[in-house]
């Protein structure tokens, strides 16, 4: 099909990308940093909706829409136009609406997740398909985090984001995300790193039978961007302290380049933990989920 007229409206859920661990293992000659990371996707995210229209347009709504312009620089429009070009098709006639629920520049891949969502949506409703490797290359050209957001499943990410391998099934757990509503510059974090040649992740076991075994593994990992981020944005330390002080928290850490931090807990504990953090810090953005892929 060439447009949405045959299938009505459609939508995609763009889950947040959370780095449970993030090791920086080197830097390429072109300046890109090499990573070794464990990535999961909780049921917390932006929503993308499409309806048939006379042309391609984008409207941005939601609590974090302020400051985001629906112009040609927006990654959602770049993604769908790049896909159309790669498929040899004209721009799809779609009215896109992005409900922006995730904080911007917050270390949880919101923009990349949105770009990946529109690629999935265009494939499903506008018939714009590419072979898997070509789609992954196109996604990588849009941004290093876009390929991992395509399938929204737990993976080990290596290289600059192009090498993905599925993780063994993870046990059930709850997760709480907290952002102090402060944007952090990823380039500034990379520039401030003191060491760019760190160890890779420990060997991943064949399976994580219990949440205790997953937490034990993660305790031997780290986020190599966290110390620099805390130095440049001290409120991150306050977020981590608030999360670690909660008795239900089994592990707390910063995701990506921050300032979003997470706490892992037993499934069922996440909503209470989130409510206490929100009550004690009403200005912070807090979200929780026990559905993690």
Automatic annotation (TrEMBL):
Belongs to the GHMP kinase family. IspE subfamily. Keywords: ATP-binding, Isoprene biosynthesis, Kinase, Nucleotide-binding, Transferase. This is 4-diphosphocytidyl-2-C-methyl-D-erythritol kinase. InterPro entries: GHMP_kinase_C_dom, GHMP_kinase_C_sf, GHMP_kinase_N_dom, IspE, Ribosomal_Su5_D2-typ_SF, Ribsml_uS5_D2-typ_fold_subgr. PANTHER family: 4-DIPHOSPHOCYTIDYL-2-C-METHYL-D-ERYTHRITOL KINASE, CHLOROPLASTIC. It catalyses: 4-CDP-2-C-methyl-D-erythritol + ATP = 4-CDP-2-C-methyl-D-erythritol 2-phosphate + ADP + H(+). Residues 74-150 form the GHMP kinase N-terminal domain. The lineage of its organism: Bacteria, Pseudomonadati, Pseudomonadota, Alphaproteobacteria, Hyphomicrobiales. The keyword Lipoprotein does not apply. GO terms for molecular function: 4-(cytidine 5'-diphospho)-2-C-methyl-D-erythritol kinase activity.
